[in-house]
Amino acid sequence: MESEIKNSLREIKQVIDAEIEEILKNKNELIEGLFKSAAYSVSGGKRLRAVFAILVGRIFDISLEKMIKPAVALELIHAASLIMDDLPYMDDSQLRRGKPANHIIFGQDVALLASVALISEANQIVLSDENLTVSERNQVTAMLCGSYGFNGLAAGQFVDLKLKRKDIEFKIFKFINEKKTAALFTASGLIAATIGHAKEKEKKALQAFSENIGFAFQIMDDLLDISGDEKIVGKNLNHDKTNFIQLVGIDAAKNYLKKYHEKAEAALNIFGKKAHELKGFSSYLFKRIY
Ligand code: IPE
Ligand code: IPE
Ligand code: MG
Ligand code: MG
Ligand code: MG
């Protein structure tokens, strides 16, 4: 199962990377620096959100052609969120994906503009995607927007940055992880479910799976922040303003990780054998060392 999911990851990554290269080709000499900054931060990465969306799409027999632009849009939004997350007034990180953070190379002003441009581009490529019906385009765009607004990334990042240590409690962490991380995973799963005309109970199952892997994914990321290897992880460690491990300690965090992973997999039972690849995906997520 492990080699199967690694092959899928590799294949999907190649297709996504080729599509991204096409989309981010410089179209205007005057703004070459802006395209360079955006392309710099979109390159690399594990492409987990795109892979997740495409694997959910396979459950509903959606062609790769139909999933490719929404999957790319998810990765553009994710890259934009990483540019912002590293800024000096956010996590103040200098290293991302094994390279200097965007603002170190291009400056904070350009980094911020590239981030905004990437979010805008993500919406535009979906709204002009001829492989989707107009209704699908609108629904997918609404889900993308939901993932980073007052009910998504911005909300989670706000609490992450502004939380006072004395106020740390489990339900606040749950909010942070749900919004800053799980929201984009949930959008990835539900976008594919919507394009695949999933039944209501299938959408609910995918929502439960996404929320639980999203939550567990951030716990894993927080564990890596405390005990990972900077050279392998490719980002500055010990740079979180708030980290789940501060609240519960390493052993309890590992137990939570296991619990959320199990809850996620249990939600897939209604798909029977068709859930095989998604189960491989979630196992892969929690064995990661970067
Ligand atoms: C990092 O996500 C940000 C979090 C939500 C924890 P990834 O670990 O998926 O980052 P890349 O895309 O592979 O660099
Ligand atoms: C994830 O939190 C925030 C985003 C969703 C961008 P982190 O601050 O832990 O992410 P990394 O570790 O810098 O990738
Ligand atoms: Mg952060
Ligand atoms: Mg960070
Ligand atoms: Mg982190």
The set of bound ligands, ions and cofactors reads:
3-methylbut-3-enyl trihydrogen diphosphate, magnesium ion
Query: Unreliable runs, pLDDT <50, ≥5 residues?
Result: none
- The global form is globular
The H/E string reads HHHHEEHHHHHHHHHH
Briefly note the structural class of the backbone.
mainly alpha
Q: How would you characterize the overall build of this protein?
A:
The chain is globular. The model has no long low-confidence stretch (mean pLDDT 94). The chain is built from 14 helices and 2 strands; from the N terminus they run ααααββαααααααααα. The two termini are 20 Å apart. The chain has a two-stranded antiparallel ribbon with strand order 1-2. The protein has helices spanning 2-23, 32-42, 48-59, 64-86, 102-106, 108-127, 134-148, 153-162, 170-195, 200-227, 230-233, 244-248, 250-267, 276-285; strands at 95-96, 99-100. It is mainly alpha-helical and 290 residues long. Helix content is 72%, strand content 1%. Helix 1 packs across helix 14 (276-285) and helix 8 runs antiparallel to helix 9 (170-195). Bound molecules: 3-methylbut-3-enyl trihydrogen diphosphate (2 copies) and magnesium ion (3 copies). The site of one magnesium ion has 4 residues, from loops. One magnesium ion (MG) binds at residues 221, 225, 240.
